[in-house]
Amino acid sequence: MFDYNLLQNETEKYFNELINNSKDINLGIDIYISFYNQVIKGIESKEHYEKCFSIINPLFNKYLEFSFPKNLIDKQKNNNKKIIIFLPNIQYDLAHIDFLYSFLTEIKDQNYDITIASSFTNINKISKNILNLKNKNILKNIIHLDFSKFSSIENFIKLNLNFSCFIVWGIPLIIPLWTKIYSNKVIFVTTKFEYGSFNDLNNAISFQSQKNKTNIKIGNTNWHRLPPFCPFLKFKEHSKSMDDKLIKLISVNRPEKINDPIFLNCLSKILISNDNAIFYYCGKHQDKILCDYFASKNLLSRIKFLGWIDPESVIGNFDIFLDSNSLSGILAVNYFISGMPVVTFNNCLSYISLNNQKLKNELNHNFSFNEIEYVEYTNKLIRDTNFLMKVTNLQKKSKKIFIENNSNIANKFVETINEINSF
Questions:
Q1: Residues 413/206, Cβ–Cβ less than 8 Å
Q2: For the whole model, what pTM was predicted?
Q3: 342 and 365 in contact (C-beta within 8 Å)?
Q4: Lowest mean pLDDT among 147-156, 255-264, 393-402
Q5: Given strand 113-118, what is the order of strands in its sheet?
Q6: Higher pLDDT residue, 241 or 10?
Q7: Residue 306 and residue 188: Cα distance in Å, rounded?
Q8: Percent of residues, the chain, with pLDDT higher than 90
């Protein structure tokens, strides 16, 4: 449990020391990035993210007032057909790239001049798919932008690219710096949480709306809501028959996502109720919180660590995907479409829960659950082969429900960008 008052005091102390001793803007950027990686990502919940950003953003803004070179503030005219998409490199988290690739391929208006500014140290590692977009002229250019070094940011500013939008894609890193430079040209785009703690951020877009389109103001930010866009990864179909002697449960979510009390409680109940079930998880390293929790339940021998794996290799080699309570991702829905049984919570912002009413209407089956139902549904999948096969077949029919509106959503995004630019 975080002590947010202590966190506030300690972070404030760091920035005050910087203000008193250094004008090196790199130090402030380094604190912000470290705070994000070590503190904010520790708990994948909207409440935690909002509290943490409400601590770090005002302090970072205060330091920018002290350290930012005023001559670098953007004064270029807008080119309404030119867009920069800033794609941060977060190691081991490539979902934002897959989402962006799927999304850009759906945009019909190819008159836009789209440049990706990425912090990947080797641009060729960004994604073969992204490079293919450049080859197809969907992307104008890919520029290296190392947001951890102000010299790289300064060099980018001096390119004078004359764009109308600087889109921070997926991960809200150093947004106070971007708004300092580019003011109302900055737009944050997320499939995750909507924030009210970025005081200088005028506009943001989220893919969460159940309705055609709804807008809301949170803090000083105008949130433009679009329906969920579901990247389709074209996984093979799931066809594994379960071995009665060993049931392999898996989550490919990062440990930060599965270290959630609700998920861990449900998982422990499932393992206790099914002696033949084993749970596998992935990540950079074995997770101490996870290990300590299951050791306390005498279940540690039935928790297996896989490291990082090829996501598609899960299909056919594991039996049931258990989604986390705190936050879902694009892998869960693509396993779902493949026919691999997926169990998800009804409050985790998953593509499945956001589309659950459509799934009920079309397939006459509920796929998103509260805590009690989550455990009961998983137990039934483990124990009833006929039920499991029924679920597999129903899930395979769901592809159209998830991706039929992708093109419309992508082009509504373009319309939203045009609306923002016209203000």
A1: no
A2: 0.85
A3: no
A4: 255-264
A5: 141-144, 113-118, 82-87, 165-169, 186-190, 203-207, 221-226, 214-218
A6: 10
A7: 34
A8: 37
